[in-house]
Each structure stands twice: as C-alpha cells, then as structure tokens.
Amino acid sequence: MSSLLGPLVDRPSFVALVLITGTTALSTDTYIAALPQIQTTLGTSAIVAQLTMTACIAGMAIGQLLFGPISDAHGRRNLIIASTVAFTGMSILCAVAPSGWLLVLERAVQGIACGAASGIGRAVVTDSSAGRLAAARFGSLAAVGLVAPVVGPVIGGGLLRFGDWRTVFWFLAVVGAAMIVAALFGLPETLPPDNRRPGGIRQMGLRARELFADPEFRNPVLVQCVTVCGFFTYIGGSSFVLQHDLGISQQAYALVFAVNALAMVISSVIYRLLVLRTGPYVLRRVAVVVQTISVSALFAVALATPGHRPPLATVWICLSGMTLGLGTYLPSNSSIVQILGRRYGGTASALGGGLPFLAGALMTPLTGLLGQQSVMAMSAAMFGFFAVAAVGSLLMRHAYARQRPMIEGNL
User: Fold this and answer.
1) Cα separation of 395 and 406, whole Å?
2) How far is CA 336 from CA 23, 134, 136, 340, in A?
3) At the topology level of CATH, where does 210-405 sit?
4) Which of 56, 164, 285, 328 counts the highest number of beta carbons within 10 A?
5) CATH architecture label of 14-194
C-alpha cells in the first residue's frame, strides 16, 4: 500500500500521536451530559440513549482488536489516515442523525474508527522507539490521555451551554479534522514493507495466537484485564454509590471524580519523569502496591463501619489512592506489553489495549448487578479484582530476569 501523502517529519510527531491516541476519551466524556437531550429530542427511550454510549465503547474495543493486526500486514500510516477520515465522517453523520437507532449504529462505527486509530498509534510508538525510551513515550501519551476524562465533561458542558447535543458531534468533527491533518503531516510510515507480515485472516490469527501463547506476553495482559475490571467497577458504580448510599450531591460527586482523575494524571506525569531512570518494572511494582493497599483499605473500612457506610473522606482517600496507583500502573504495564510483543506491534497493541478495554466495558454495570448500590458492594467487587491482579503480578516476578535485557534497554 503506497503512502497517501509524504509527511513533513522523519519521526512521528508527539502532537500527532496525542491527537490520534487521545481521542477515545473525548469521544465518550464530552458526550455524557448530552444523553438526556438525545432521549428527548429524538423521541427515544433512555435505553436507546445509553446504547449510543455502549455502542461507541464496544466499537473502540473492536477497532483495536481488528485493525491492530491488519496494520502488521499493510503498514500503519494509511490505516491511521483512513481511520481519522472515517471518524470525522461519522462525527458529522452523528451530528445530523434523525433517529436514536441510527445514532446507535453511527456511534458504533465512530468507535471502531477511533479505536483503530488509537491502537495503531500505539504500534507506531513501538516501531519507532525501544526500551526505556518507548516506555517514556507511552507514559507521555498516557499522561495526556488521562487529562481527557477531566476536561471532557467540562468541554461537553460548555458546548451544551451554546447548543444542543449535536454541537458535541460537530466539535468531534473538528477534532477529527485536526487528526487528519496531524496524520498527514506528522506521521511517517514506521513499518517498512520488508518488516510487514502476511495479511490473510489466518495469518493474523496465527500471530495473535503466537503472542498469546507466550506467557511472558500473555500474563501482564491478563493482569491488566483484571485490574481494568476493578477500575471500571468504580467508573460504573461510583456515581450511584456515592450519591445514593452516602447521600452526596451531584456537584460533590463531580468534585470527587475530578480529584481522583487528577490523581491519575499526576501519577502518570511522575511515571514519565522517572521511567528513564528506573525503568517501567520498578514503577509498576510500586503502583501495584499503592492501588492494592488503597482498595484493601476501602474494603476493610466498609466491613468495619456500622451499616457499612464509611465517612465520605475515608472513601475518597481510598479511591484517590487507587487512581494514583493506576496512573502509573497503566502506562508501565502497557509499555512492558508493547515492548515484549514488538515483533508484531499492531497485534500486541490490539491484544494489550483492546482486551482490557473490552473486559472493563463489560464490567461497568457490575455494581448494579450485585443487587445494591452500596459502598460495600462496590468495594467488595473492586477488592476481588485488585487482589487477583496483585497475586498475578507477584507470580510474574520470576520472569523479570529473562525480560530485563529487552525491557530495560535503551535506544
């Protein structure tokens, strides 16, 4: 596949990578506040309005899982350009959608395009960097990507002051146009034809199976899946739990969520500052300890408190500790996974990014399925996931000696 238009850089532009890999959160978080408007203006049900969000999240997972392996066969650049064009076009179609069910379909395709661009973008980092330098670049992208959940709802709220829910999609179309420009002029092809793999479905499946059959690659992916399940239990249940069980207001919950998200951002920045000196393994180990202690403390306090309703301050501190650990854990573990799977960078990105994302999305409603919206239910579920992840991380320690030359190397 020939290049569509020669880029103006020899190495991938950081700004371009930020735009291409960081749009997933904007696609969801700028849109949350608009769900009630969609239900009203399109004359649909609350379930269909929620499905427009679910379809996008599922599409993001599918886009990563499908197009990452394809990029190992056909290269990165043209697929990223096609994905950004598709994302922009679907944003425009979403902005003019006449019905709820059509919007659900369009959001699914938009999510696939967004997930494809994000997953292939991570593979670009794997192609163009190695060792601690690659880990540092993943940390930088993670830090920027974690800002989106903080600013996304603010942007969405601001847009809704000047327009309706369609304005949000026009905004995403503008973001998509910026992604196209960034891909065209900021991203060279990082996977030359000589390094590409056969492109048939069978060959792609064999590459995925080969990677997943390697325990040194598979185990950190599975541990991240379990960790993300615990995190998404918090994402899906915290608003109901804190408002219904602890009785705080919507404004207070927004503050709690924002501070916890900010803790993730700060932690990811600290990771970026330290990883060139320490390597990702040390930082991942520290992160696992911090997040496991925080969630265990939340569960213990919920058990010990009369009525299982601990004070908000205690719950808040524990949840902030959990997100603080995750801000370092996610980029460090993702860096390790990508470096270990670099022989098939796109497939490694698909498995390392798509599977945890899909697992987390499926776990979002878990707290509600437990039968009660309570701190006890949420903390018990989170403790189960994080405890399993901690044990898995402990069992992986013996692999460090074998992996160290690859993980700790520099360009």
Assistant:
1) 20
2) 23, 9, 11, 6
3) Growth Hormone; Chain: A; (1.20.1250)
4) 328
5) Up-down Bundle (1.20)
